[in-house]
Amino acid sequence: MINQDNTISTEINQENFQEIIESSQKKPLLIIFWAPSIPESIENKNLIENIAINYQESLTIADINCESQQIIASQFGIRSIPTIALFKNGQPVEGLEGLQTKESLIQLFDNHLPSQDDILFEQIKNEINNSKYSEALRNIKKMSENFSQKGALKLLEAECQIELNNYEQAEQLLEQVPLQDQTSKYNELSSKIELHNNASETPEIKTLEEKLKLNNSDYKVMYQLSIAYNEVHKFEKSLSLMFEVLSHDINYLEGGAKKSFLNILSSLGQDNDIAKEYRKKIYTLMY
């Protein structure tokens, strides 16, 4: 059934014609040429709008009713209806006549529009600029594996992890950045990690590490070192040691160790990858 309600396109008329065409200087513009008396053109319009809704961040959609706006339609030299035309920088770049398919429309958009990954990448950068690091990390996970700017994405992810005090994860991410992407941002993040690591080498931690080297099954020292690591945001080391203690005795310190472990997980939040890993491990151990 043909449905002309809930349209996402703007109808072009004499008043807004110039403004809409000029808008393609900033964002690509798709114009749909249709007529109410031609069912095929209405079907074409509905199909285009259903698909184009996924491209609204990078595409302006407008339509011309060739019956009520004959003067405007004639300026484009349209030979048949339905027809669509894509404009960029105020100029037409491609036109398609006849009833389109989903595949032909997607091909048109892929040829001329930023990919969904590119759009999401820009969104991630904006979120980081606005200190929305958790939101940025969630969107980073949505990126496809074949995204062309993998190194740049790793840098953004590492920056988020640093700002969320997940220095170990950030360090692991920087190790995955290829040489060609080791820019000034890479050096900046590496310096932050180095400063953090130097500051976190407290006398207490060094003493406990030496004790553990002498006796690697001293669970009291393991527990104390785990707490010390957590205080300087070395969460992975902290959880690893605490889990070893709990694997030895799930009720160590009359359940105090388990409580500390769960508190660390809670502080990291639901989205933290390290917390997810150790949450699974502790549930397996407990149940």
Question: Main attributes?
Answer:
14 helices; disordered N terminus; alpha/beta; 287 residues; elongated; 9% strand; five-stranded mixed β-sheet
Reconstruct the topology from this structure.
Blueprint: E1 10-11, H1 17-22, E2 29-34, H2 39-52, E3 60-65, H3 70-75, E4 83-88, E5 91-97, H4 102-112, H5 116-129, H6 133-140, H7 150-163, H8 167-174, H9 184-200, H10 203-214, H11 219-231, H12 235-248, H13 256-268, H14 273-286
Parallel strand pairs: 1-3, 2-3
Antiparallel strand pairs: 2-4, 4-5
The number of distinct β-strands equals: 5
Largest sheet: 5 strands, mixed
The H-and-E topology, N to C, reads as: EHEHEHEEHHHHHHHHHHH
Given helix and strand content, the structural type is alpha/beta
In order across it, which strands form the biggest sheet?
1-3-2-4-5
Strand content: 5-15%
- Low-confidence parts: 1-6
Radius of gyration: 29 Å
The end-to-end distance, rounded to whole angstroms, is: 54 Å
Mean pLDDT: 91
> What fraction, in percent, of the residue positions are helical?
55-70%
Q: Helix tally?
A: 14
What is the global morphology? elongated
Protein described:
There is one protein chain. With 287 residues, the chain is of the alpha/beta class. It is 57% helix and 9% strand. Strands 1-3-2-4-5 form a five-stranded mixed beta sheet. A hairpin with a 2-residue loop joins strand 4 and strand 5 (91-97). The longest helix is centred in the C-terminal third of the chain and has 17 residues, at 184-200. It is elongated and about 90 Å long. The protein starts with 9 loop residues before the first strand and ends with a helix.
